[in-house]
Every structure is written in structure tokens, then in C-alpha cells.
């Protein structure tokens, strides 16, 4: 498995990589994760580290951000090829030890680009394509690299499959593979529920739509506590959110609290305590946090953006609203706030459905079957 950024954190692409690696290893496969070396400040460095994390070999590879190379190389690398790093090139010797290569996350094509000429079966799990689609649609070279980077492409929902087809990738090369949850950890505890607690989990950046959620609070009369948990990805945007939240804390009956990264145990506790989970994204590939919340018995109010309608059944597990519409978002939240029986009904149905259909054991088995069939492995 190759991914530019891999941390031992909860959420997003890193969760998908870690969980699939763990489960494939348990199924008897030798699995390795190749990623860039990232220091404690989140900066990529020209260093190497090889460790074993819960039995999985993780190789953190030397690389240099292309932005720190010459101006010409920096411009053509990022704009023409969507390459964000220059890795030490003898990573080929590591990749050749594996029978199949898996790439994750279309935000950076460094590993796929530098592996184009490796004659090894390749799989690309197209995480985050919904957010990057317009870039690939407009730019010929990154689109061509993406199309040639793998033999088959995995999608978490039908919206992403449609986008791949628009980019010129043949339908027979695309396969559905949903995200999963760990049912042993993510499960309901309805004794913890707090009637006024709303939860958002995700990076603080504009596409996550937190500003829409804050604006929606203006239309909600019932006092609520809103927890916003996630790292800052856009400093300017986050500063605006902090200012807006301070105004709302002062001028309204609501209380808003910002948390940074949560350890998994604390995250699950918040999922279980929250009465409603809110995902107001303007663009979203799938939203693994939504199925984690559902697994914990928490109904979801989300925007009808990207792959979210494939993760949440409207009127069954929660409500879907128009992206960027604070009044509609507020209306859906208020409906659930006023009706604890409906919250309980949605929470129970959502948890039952997710824990049955989205276990990592099931997802890893499906990945194994897709891979074996596609590459005729007996």
C-alpha cells in the first residue's frame, strides 16, 4: 500500500489504509505500507524510518516537497503532473517485493507517477476524488497519469464511479468497495446520550462546511452544545470560524467548543454521547465519520454532497439537506432535537445497518475477492 501521508491517527484515508492493512494481514497476506517520512511538525523530510505497527511493516521514505525544488520543477511537477514530492527513487526495490501495489488518495500522484513503469498489478482506491474532480477534468496530464496509474480502480460509492467514467476510465475497470467500521469499538451506548449535544468531526477547511453549520445555529432556538473536533487544515478559515463561534457564544443561547485531534477512545465516547452528528460538507468523497457515528447509534444530519447520500439513508438513518443551506440544515437539526424517540429510532436502525454491512472483516474479504478475480489469482 502506498500513500503520501500516513499517521497513526483516526480518520480519513489513514483509517482506511490502516484497517485494510490490519485485516488483510489477518487473512494471511504480507502487507506493507510505504509513505513519506513526516516529522512532528507535519513536514516531509529526507529521512527514512522502518517500523512495525501492530505487525504491519511501515516504511517512511525520504522525500523532498517539490515546492522546495527549483521554480521550474516546482511549477511543472505540481500543475502538470499533480506531484507534490520527489522521493528517493530506489523505493522501487521495496515495491518489487510485493505482488500487488495499492494506491490511495488522488490528492497526490507521487507514488503512482513514479511507479508507472513497474510491471506489477496495481489497484487505486480513489479516496477524495469528489473534491479533486474538477482539477482532473481540466488538466490533461494529471488525468492521463491517473488513468494509467492502475489496472483497476476502487470506489466507495456510485458518485465516484460516475466521476471516473467522466475522466475516461472504463467502467469494467471500476469496482465498488465501501468504507468500514470496527464493530468491536464503534457501537452504541444509549445510556450516555446527551439531549443537547451536537458533534462535528473533521478538518477545519472550507469544503467541510463548518461555517454553514455555525450560521445554521442562528435559526435554532433550542439551546445546544456544539463540539467541533478536528485539526486545522486552513489557518485563515479556522480563524474566521473561531471569531464567528465567539460571537455566537456571546450573542445566542448556544455553546460552541473547539477540540483538536481526539484519541480514538475519546472520539468513540463523543460519538456515543452526541444526540446528533452533523456533516455539512460542501464536497465529500464518502464521509467515514458519518458511518462511525451511525455505528455508535447517533443519527446523522448531512449535506446531499458527493458520496454522502450513499452513506446515509434519508429519513431512515437521519436527514440529508442541500449543501450550503443553513436554514435547511437548521430545520433538520431542530426536527431531531424536538423528537427523542425519532433520534433513538434512527440511531438504532443506523447502527444495525452499518455494523451488519460495513464491518472491516467484510470489506477486506471483498477487496481480496476483487483483487483475486481481476488478476486471476487462484
From TrEMBL:
InterPro entries: Glyco_trans_1 (IPR001296), Glyco_trans_4-like_N (IPR028098), Glycosyltransferase_grp1 (IPR050194). Residues 10-182 form the Glycosyltransferase subfamily 4-like N-terminal domain. Residues 189-350 form the Glycosyl transferase family domain. GO terms for molecular function: glycosyltransferase activity. Transmembrane segments: none annotated. This is Glycosyl transferase family 1 domain-containing protein. It comes from Candidatus Schekmanbacteria bacterium GWA2_38_11.
Amino acid at each position: 500500500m502506498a500513500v503520501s501521508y500516513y499517521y497513526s491517527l483516526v480518520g480519513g484515508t489513514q483509517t482506511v489504509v490502516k484497517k485494510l492493512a490490519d485485516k488483510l494481514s489477518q487473512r494471511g497476506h504480507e502487507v506493507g505500507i510505504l509513505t513519506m517520512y513526516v516529522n512532528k511538525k507535519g513536514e516531509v523530510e529526507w529521512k527514512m524510518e522502518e517500523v512495525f505497527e501492530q505487525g504491519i511493516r511501515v516504511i517512511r521514505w525520504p522525500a523532498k516537497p517539490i515546492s522546495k525544488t527549483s521554480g521550474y520543477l516546482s511549477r511543472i511537477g505540481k500543475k502538470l503532473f499533480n506531484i507534490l514530492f520527489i522521493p528517493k527513487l530506489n523505493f522501487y526495490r521495496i515495491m518489487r517485493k510485493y505482488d500487488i501495489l495499492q494506491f490511495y488518495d488522488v490528492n497526490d500522484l507521487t507514488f503512482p507517477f513514479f511507479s508507472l513503469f513497474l510491471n506489477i498489478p496495481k489497484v487505486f482506491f480513489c479516496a477524495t476524488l469528489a473534491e479533486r474532480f474538477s482539477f482532473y477534468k481540466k488538466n490533461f496530464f494529471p488525468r492521463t497519469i491517473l488513468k494509467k496509474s492502475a489496472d483497476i480502480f476502487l470506489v466507495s460509492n456510485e458518485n465516484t464511479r460516475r466521476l471516473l467514467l467522466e475522466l475516461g476510465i472504463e467502467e469494467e475497470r471500476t469496482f465498488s468497495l465501501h468504507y468500514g467500521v470496527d464493530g468491536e469499538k464503534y457501537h452504541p451506548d444509549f445510556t450516555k446520550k446527551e439531549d443537547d449535544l451536537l458533534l462535528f468531526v473533521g478538518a477545519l477547511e472550507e469544503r467541510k462546511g463548518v461555517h454553514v453549520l455555525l450560521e445554521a445555529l442562528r435559526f435554532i432556538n433550542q439551546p445546544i452544545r456544539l463540539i467541533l473536533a478536528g485539526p486545522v487544515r486552513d489557518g485563515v478559515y479556522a480563524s474566521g470560524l473561531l471569531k464567528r463561534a465567539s460571537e455566537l457564544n456571546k450573542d445566542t443561547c448556544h455553546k460552541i467548543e473547539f477540540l483538536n485531534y481526539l484519541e480514538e477512545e475519546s472520539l468513540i465516547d463523543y460519538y456515543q454521547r452526541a444526540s446528533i452528528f452533523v456533516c455539512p460538507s460542501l464536497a465529500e468523497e464518502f464521509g467515514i465519520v458519518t458511518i462511525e457515528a451511525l455505528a455508535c447509534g447517533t443519527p446523522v444530519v448531512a449535506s446531499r454532497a458527493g458520496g454522502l447520500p450513499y452513506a446515509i439513508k434519508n429519513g431512515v438513518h437521519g436527514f440529508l439537506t442541500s449543501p450550503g443551506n443553513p436554514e435547511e440544515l437548521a430545520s433538520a437539526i431542530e426536527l431531531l432535537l424536538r423528537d427523542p424517540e425519532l433520534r433513538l429510532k434512527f440511531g438504532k436502525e443506523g447502527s444495525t445497518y452499518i455494523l451488519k454491512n460495513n464491518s472491516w472483516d467484510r470489506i477486506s474479504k471483498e477487496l481480496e475477492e476483487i483483487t483475486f478475480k481481476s488478476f486471476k489469482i487462484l
